[in-house]
Amino acid sequence: MSLQLSMEDVEKLEDQLYDKLVEKARVDFYTFVRLMAEVVLPEEFVTGRHIELICAELQKVEESVKDKSKSPERLQLFLPPGSMKSKLSSNLFPAWCMGRNPNWCFLAIGSDFDFAVDNFGRPTKDLLSTPQYQAIFPKTILKKGRFVARGAGQNIAGRRAHITICDDVITEQTKDIDRRKINEWYQKGLRTRLLPRGAEIIINTRWFVEDLSGYTLKLDGQRGVNEKT
User: Fold this and answer.
1) Closest Cα to residue 40, out of 121, 124, 118, 116?
2) Among 11, 139, 33, 47, which Cα is nearest to 89's?
3) Spatial separation of the C-alpha atoms in residues 186 and 200, rounded to whole Å
4) Three-class secondary structure of residue 167 per DSSP
């Protein structure tokens, strides 16, 4: 016996499936990524094991800030260009967190101010106003000061954050003296901006041994902190 569905039945099933995915996307970051990828990517989304792993680690970061029984995470991601690391970590992840935690604050740091605004600040703000996002997190808006994009080394006085995100704060052209300044600014500046249960994310293509990742791994290794790479 064959079962034939009408177009109306197919559309109802598709709507029901989408509603289930929307519900899951509110609690599962990877599902959120799969639903929202078409909004942030210029080409068709192709998932991969590394995407699933990154999503799982990022969700642990959010959970570590909320759950007082856990220690706030310090997550580092080392991937080559074109790995979707920035879209996941600096656009989709903060958007997902703000949908779940409307009062959270983020500091997103790039190599310079224009880079940070163009790649983190503006795209994340635009993402929150899309119909696809609003279907998952209705009425979520980006309040002033909740997501601040800055260049490495810039003034962040008065800013606090539940999560800081440093995304390619140096390039392959960054000079040694500038790398040292960024490392010092991170320790004495950005880290002091974290709220008591604040978490840290560093995303890098590793161009130098003594980049920010190398510096913090050495710094925190002396304190017994284990980074995930």
Assistant:
1) 124
2) 33
3) 11
4) strand
CA gyration radius for the chain?
19
- Confirm if 223 and 191 have CB atoms less than 8 A apart: no
Residue type, 114: D
Q: Is the per-residue pLDDT at 141 higher than 90?
A: no
Contact present, 93 and 30 (Cβ < 8 Å): no
Percent of the chain's residues with pLDDT above 70: 91
Looking at residue 186, its pLDDT comes to 94
- For residue range 90-132, list pLDDT tens digits in order: 999 999 999 999 999 999 999 999 999 999 999 999 999 999 9
Closest by CA to 66, choosing from 192, 228, 195, is: 195
Question: Which DSSP symbol is given to 228?
Answer: B
Query: Distance between CA atoms of 169 and 175, rounded to whole angstroms?
Result: 12
Nearest 5°: CA angle at 164, between 160 and 168? Answer: 140
CA dist 115 and 120 (Å) reads 8
Residue 78 neighbours by CB distance under 10 Å: 15
| Per-residue pLDDT reduced to its tens digit, 59-102 | 999 999 999 999 999 999 988 888 899 999 999 999 999 999 99
Continuous segment of H or E residues that includes residue 199: strand 194-204
* Tokens 């920035």 belong to residue: 86
Three-state secondary-structure class, residue 163: strand
Give the number of other CB atoms < 10 A from CB of residue 26. 13
